[in-house]
Design goal:
Elements (H helix, E strand, L loop, with lengths): L1 H11 L11 H9 L6 H17 L8 H11 L1 H4 L5 H7 L1 H16 L2 H21 L3 E7 L5 E3 L6 E2 L4 E6 L8 H12 L3 H21 L10 H4 L24 H19 L5 E5 L8 H16 L3 E5 L3 H9 L9 E2 L2 H10 L4 H16 L32
Protein name: STAS domain protein
Membrane topology: Multi-pass membrane protein
Subcellular location: Membrane
Length: 397
């Protein structure tokens, strides 16, 4: 009936007609009486006319409190809905909050403004829930093909070299930044910050070479050049090439030694080799979300981390490929287990992985350093800006 009144007033307002009004209590009485269609209104109107013209004088002496009691009894079914609050609280905090907010606004303001406020609050909760969805780190349950949350399942074990992350929400403009930061947190490394520190190391190395009268340091590889580029390139091109003439002054050896210690500490933070993103919960990706996903894949590829996508729908795959937000270098798998088996076959030893990332750097610095320090003792030296996550130490050489 309320929908009928709304539709009637919307159409009749275009023809200068008189608006019709709805009564919540009268509608509740009609429903309680067993009314099913709008024909019930015809009979209730006829009964109302009899009351006004013929039966009205009989109710003249009835107190208003008795008439109010009749209305309250008719609305009893609506008040019983308040008992659902306990169930709503257990089911969803957002549904519970929407019920309370709408009820309070209806009582304090008016039925119309209360309902409008409830609708607005409900839309706001949808935005908030999709903006910060849950993200989980998954682990393989023993030797099965099932992957569960490592925080809730003791049988699920995660690896330091292969991380499986599930983002339980869609990626759009409101959640893109949260998606990026959440993946960085769950994977245990922030490639953007690591490359920022790498730029600082390069700048210090250039200044040191100039101070010693040597030729200015030049970086030809793809790792540093790709810092300023968002185009993902092949990982095989990510190598350092730093020709440095050994400085003769004794103070320079200490500077190079300190620089090498920082490089070793940086390598200890790069133990991750593969990152698997479970895309089964992604319903849609807008332009901002696609840009964020592309940038995230590019950042990890610069550090030698292969990002694999699994469980993505065909619609999203075709959308991203058609708009060149994904390249053929990003592997796609139908399930997490398929991606895990492929990543396990491509794993290399931890020392070999770190040696591949810095072998050119260590080779060029070996002429001015007596020995390369053990990275296990130098992990804490890379804390200029802020402390990073606690990673297991690796071997530099």
């Amino acid at each position: 009936e309320l929908f009928a009144f709304g539709l009637t007033n919307s159409i009749s307002s275009c023809f200068h007609a008189f608006p019709s009004a709805a009564s919540l209590s009268r509608s509740a009485v009609q429903v309680a009486a067993g009314g099913k269609t709008e024909v019930t209104t015809v009979f209730s109107s006829i009964l109302l006319l009899f009351v006004l013209f013929f039966i009205g004088p009989l109710f003249y002496s009835v107190p208003n409190c008795c008439l109010s009691a009749i209305i309250v009894v008719a609305l009893k079914g609506m008040f019983i809905h308040a008992l659902e609050l306990k169930t709503l609280w257990k089911y969803s905090f957002w549904d519970f909050g929407t019920w309370i907010f709408t009820c309070v606004c209806t009582v304090l303001l008016d039925v119309t403004f209360g309902l409008l406020a409830g609708v607005a609050f409900s839309i706001l909760t949808i935005i908030l829930r999709t903006q910060c969805p849950k993200i989980r780190t998954l682990g393989r349950a023993d030797d099965t093909e099932f992957y569960r949350d490592v925080r809730r399942n003791d049988l699920a074990k995660e690896s330091d070299t292969i991380k499986v992350v599930r983002y339980e929400g869609s990626i759009y403009y409101a959640s893109a930044e949260n998606f990026r930061q959440s993946v960085f947190q769950k994977s245990g490394m922030d490639p953007a910050k690591i490359f920022a520190k790498l730029q600082k190391v390069r700048a210090k190395l250039d200044r040191l070479a100039k101070h010693d009268g040597a030729e200015q340091t030049k970086l030809s590889p793809a790792v540093i050049d790709r810092i300023a580029s968002t185009e993902p390139r092949k990982l095989e091109e990510d190598k350092f090439s730093i020709p440095i003439e050994p400085p003769s002054p004794e103070p320079s050896q200490g500077s190079y030694q300190k620089l090498s210690n920082k490089l070793c500490a940086l390598q200890n933070r790069c133990t991750l080799q593969h990152l698997i993103l479970d895309c089964s919960c992604w319903n849609f990706i807008d332009f901002v979300g696609a840009e964020e996903l592309q940038q995230l894949v590019s950042d990890y590829q610069k550090l030698g981390v292969t990002v694999s996508l699994c469980g993505m729908s065909d619609t999203l795959i075709s959308l991203l490929l058609r708009n060149e937000k994904l390249t053929v270098e990003v592997p796609l798998y139908p399930s997490i287990h398929d991606a895990m088996l492929k990543c396990q076959s491509q794993l290399v030893d931890k020392s070999e992985h770190q040696r591949n990332l810095q072998k050119d750097f260590v080779r060029n610095l070996s002429n001015v350093m007596v020995s390369t320090p053990d990275c296990d003792a130098q992990t804490d030296s890379l804390n200029e800006d802020e402390p990073g996550p606690n990673f297991q130490s690796g071997i530099c050489r």
